Amino acid sequence: MEHAERVLTAAADLFYRRGVRAVGMDEVRAASGVSLKRLYQCYPSKEALVVAYLERRDERWMSSLTGYVDGRTDPIAAVFEWLERWFGEDGFRGCGFVNAYGELGADSDAVREVVRRHKERLRAYLHGLVAGAVTDPGLVAEQLLVLIDGATAVAMVSPREAAATAARAAGLAAAAITAPDESP
């Protein structure tokens, strides 16, 4: 594994598990086995490392979600099934993007931008899932995004299955309410 990848892998684990501010670059160096000089050659600042972590997390998170959902007969239900599976993973600590934004967003335009791009990418994906099935796909996509983020926050502090189940029911109801009326 190349140096940059080792640093990023170590940082991703530490940042998600403990928080961005709680982890220093020396700790990332020690966990990655890369010298501090090499670490800073790969990532010239902690902010650059956090941005790289979030960009990689976006790719992996979205790939996992879309891989699970795509091709399912009820994609909205599948989104929430996937969430329930994610919530049940060992080491689940909520949304890495919201967590990073909460720690650095006010101080880092770069972090704020990568978090915004992730949420916009998720919104666009949800819009694509409901387009053609509801009268207002923009509204339903926004509702689903809020339900996903809300369920993720709730799952951090209460029974995880209940958060996914409640969000799923609300998401299916939102889609049904705005479905086109096909009666004569």
From TrEMBL:
Boundaries of every HTH tetR-type domain copy: 1-61
DNA-binding region per Swiss-Prot/TrEMBL record: 24-43
GO molecular function, one term: DNA binding
Keywords: DNA-binding, Transcription, Transcription regulation
Pfam families cross-referenced by the UniProt entry: TetR_N (PF00440)
PROSITE patterns: HTH_TETR_2
Protein name: DNA-binding transcriptional regulator, AcrR family
